[in-house]
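hey all, quick one before standup. I had two proteins in the batch that finished overnight and I want to keep them in one place so we stop losing track of which output belongs to which input. First protein below, input sequence then structure tokens straight from the run.
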Amino acid sequence: MEFMTAKQAAELWGISDRRVALLCEQGRIEGVKKAGATWLLPPDAVKPADARIKSGKYIKKAAKENQK
């Protein structure tokens, strides 16, 4: 089976390779394996959604408006 590295996934997804490694460590990407210090991702791996924004709106902006 062929894999892609965290660096290759980072270029494909437009994020840093460190961010891809963190997503792998957190278990947010399925099918990853670690070979030494390198994370290996399946070629059909999907970039996980951003978990910081749940409602589709920016929370800080809404909180400031509610304080007024």
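OK second protein, same deal, sequence then tokens:
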Amino acid sequence: MCGVFGFTGHPEAKQILPTVLASLQHRGHDASGVAGFVGVEPNCIDTVKEMGRASQVIDVDKLERFTGSSFIAHARYSTRNCSNSVREMHPHWAQSMQGRMVIVTNGDILNVDELLDYISHRKVKVYTQNDAEIIAALINIQVRLRGLTIVNAIKEVMLLVKGGYAAVVMTEDDPKIYAFRDPWGIRPLHFGEFQVDGQACRAVSSETCAFDVIQRYDSVKYPDALVYKSREVEPGEILAFEQNLPPVSEHFQITDRPKIGCVFESIYFSRPDSLQRGESFQVLRERMGMQLFEEAPVEADIVTAVPKGGIPAAVGYAKAAGLPYSVAILEEPSAGGLRSFTTNSADRLALAKMKYSILRDKVEGQRVVVVDDSIVRGTTARLLVKSLYEHGAKEVHLRIPCPPYNWPCHYGIETKDPKSLISHGRSTDEICEALGAHSLYFLSLPGLYKAIRLDQNLFCDECLSGCTPFDI
């Protein structure tokens, strides 16, 4: 569930880009990278990319050598590929007939072996099995061997690639930025337009929170800047945009397939201030918490949340229950705000142990409802329940505004092994016993969509339902 971003036309692009990329950091913190132009006539693209978070990797000084206002950027979360490999970092390169090409992607391809065979038979070399490099090589083949335009090359690539992905591309001899989203719409992508100091600024992002950063910056630096407008990049849409011309949109194909997206974006991935169909995820998650109380009320003294993901639903649960919401679990500042879910398995247990502290004077002798956004592997939940009892909690009732995470995700989440999922093959009572809680309840699947107020067929929920959105 990486974060991808691209924009052009902002008069202070280099100053604002580090903050914009940091706003997508929650989507991945294995590595960070930026690509842009470092020369004019001839144009030359270069990158800054290193292991670590955006604040450690990208700053204004490192961007000083770049020219113009066009950049693409990436926050990496590794799935099937090595999390600490320098070669896996985005942006990825491809040498094409149109000069060097750079690409950033979010998601997972399913038919990697088939595509690598296709690439090898056309005498194109790739150095990794990373989705971004594979997609870049496939575009390169269509451009180099068949003489197609970038847009038509992307259409051909969409015929070949199976899986969930969102991608942003730049080339050396073309001022346009190209953004495209898989035909099933599994991975998110949004398009925003701004008017800044008389210039048109256009951007694509995994989430709308990145656009909010730009707008807040503009409201201070350019008080006369116009409010931006944004929309989702549609499933199968290919968007080409540059600084001085209106954006151009084409579609891979027009089908009657329902538009779907990853339902886990609503539950966990996206920041609460990002939007889905015009509503903030904060509002959606509060409704999940209210629906959770409707399904699973309990006699208790306080409601608390596992920060930060559980806070919105905990607020909703407390409102519906008429119970006080209390901050009883604190995120340890030294953990740096890292999400243990997006951390590699070697570091996950250590981070879970050190990530939270409990306020004894809030929980001692209390019947505590603890709301977390989800339980996937159970690592954090088990340690938290134990710690709450050690700090004097009388009862610990877990309430989870997400149905049981029973099945692996194949489209961009590192949960390929069902044996790593605590819900897989276990009843709720068995999970409750394994976690050591007094009681446990997961929001029902119908209750989830009742809270989201959208039809289930708009979403991919394979991790919850076991139903794939398409056949491979």
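Flagging for whoever picks this up: The longest helix spans residues 131-146. The mean pLDDT is 91.
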